[in-house]
Design brief:
CATH architecture: 6 Propeller
Distance between the termini: 46 Å
Strand order of the largest sheet: 1-24-23-22
Shape: globular
Largest sheet: 4 strands, antiparallel
Strand content: 35-45%
Radius of gyration: 18 Å
Amino acid sequence: MRILPRFVLVLRSVIWFAVAVALTAVSAFSQVPSSTWVRLHPQRVPRARAACVMVYDPVSQKIVMFGGFNSSRYFDDTWTFDGTNWKQIRTTAQPAARAAASAAYDTKLKQVVLFGGYNGQYLNDTWMWNGATSTWTQATPIHQPVPETLAMMFPDPINGRAEVFGGYDGMFYQLTTWRWRDGDWHKRSLLQFPSARAAAVFGTNPVLKQTVMFGGLADVNPVNTWTYDGHTWTQQFPSTQPSERLFTGNVYDPRFGGVVTFGGFAGFDVNDTWLWNGTDWSQLFPQQSPPPRESMGMAFDELHQQTVVFGGLEGFNLLNGTWVLQTQ
């Protein structure tokens, strides 16, 4: 049996409720610039894939991408993108092949932290990407989250350390928050937190010092918006929300002053673009958009000031296009 449909259908099958009908109300933010998605044509591109991780590394000033899967295999390759071209980086040590891992740039360590994922089994190993040497190093923490996939990893909005929330371990959704510090995972003791979930919309706004999370896979209705200030999670009640969705692409984009989310699975693959400005959601209307997709890689290129999307899945069709969101 092919890996692709098994992997996707198993994850989709655990959705507790029917996907909600899209909310049509749109609140426009006057300060939001007009935009368009533009497809690039690099000389060399990675193989088509879904569920890779993509993170911008300020040290090398490049986006680093790892892993993912296609219809026949899980990937263990590492690529960088310099704003124009992709380059495969071959390393002596690297994480095992996997899809749907979690990754974020840790501003204290100045390295990318990668955790968990799935390659036929659920994983909970931790790896560090050093952009100065283009090398992977496996960490050996004493404590760690359970083996899981589709957890949400983000920089802590206060101190920039990598933190991870939620995930799915093959039986249960998780609801704990863990912080990476001093070579170990530390479980946070928080007074309030969202219901357990995986594959949610998420992102950290370093200016507002706020992480946002919405939707995802869950046993309890996840059609809600939560924010995290580094100390506790707080449920928000915005006037507008996207339709329930999962497997989205998410970044903080300073040009729009908030967290931008693109596409995902909302009962079907979509290609709409939304913005969380810290208090409310609004839909953006770029002049052109990529085709609908889910499970794509997405990162904000700080050097070139553009959001980059690569690959993903449209139905059962794997994609390998590179798109950038440009302002006008």
